[in-house]
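User: Just a sanity check before I run the rest of the batch. Below are the structure tokens for the first item. I only need the designed sequence back.
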């Protein structure tokens, strides 16, 4: 095998793996969340309940993604039809956008940010507040979109809110957080949920309308 053929085969294999992951990332959430949970239960929990609670925020959010995009799924279609008033399958929230938003946030930023707590337990507090606030966002979307039980609502309220509340309580007990109802981490979470997400939604709409104009040409 020549070096050119080897490089071509390696490149093709890498592209195939990425293509598979792009199509199945939400299903991979099932395996990854289970593996992470088992590891954290066995290795981290016996050493630190607080660190366990913080690190579990990532696999717990993956469960939320599973509800949104696997079982029952349909969150992107709900957003496109009920919120953006567009084609459910070809609206502003495309499969490509769903992939990049979720993988960047939940597969990269969340783990790195929560792992920071291993070295500094005062970090990653904002993630707990984000889980609570995104449950409120699901409720607002349900009211606006006239579909209260939209994909993600169940895990948001039955898992995220209780777990995040427990995590914040542990942070208060450890004196990491003095005022759980108003602090810098809560402010960061508020800015992310109620400022960054609307801006992201606006960008998706702008891109969608640009795409529509190009299709009409």
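Assistant: Here's the designed sequence for the first item:
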């Amino acid at each position: 095998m020549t070096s050119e053929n080897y490089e071509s085969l390696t490149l093709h294999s890498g592209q195939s793996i990425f293509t598979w992951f792009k199509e199945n990332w939400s299903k991979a959430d099932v395996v990854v969340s289970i593996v992470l949970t088992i590891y954290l239960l066995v290795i981290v929990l016996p050493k630190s309940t607080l660190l366990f609670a913080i690190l579990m925020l990532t696999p717990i959010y993956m469960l939320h993604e599973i509800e949104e995009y696997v079982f029952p799924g349909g969150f992107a279609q709900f957003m496109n039809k009920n919120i953006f008033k567009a084609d459910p399958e070809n609206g502003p929230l495309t499969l490509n956008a769903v992939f990049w938003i979720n993988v960047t946030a939940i597969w990269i930023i969340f783990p790195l940010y929560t792992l920071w707590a291993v070295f500094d337990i005062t970090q990653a507090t904002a993630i707990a507040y984000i889980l609570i606030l995104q449950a409120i966002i699901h409720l607002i979307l349900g009211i606006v979109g006239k579909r209260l039980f939209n994909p993600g609502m169940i895990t948001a309220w039955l898992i995220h809110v209780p777990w995040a509340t427990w995590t914040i309580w542990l942070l208060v007990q450890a004196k990491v957080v003095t005022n759980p109802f108003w602090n810098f981490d809560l402010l960061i979470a508020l800015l992310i949920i109620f400022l960054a997400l609307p801006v992201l939604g606006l960008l998706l709409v702008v891109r969608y309308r640009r795409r529509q104009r190009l299709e009409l040409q």
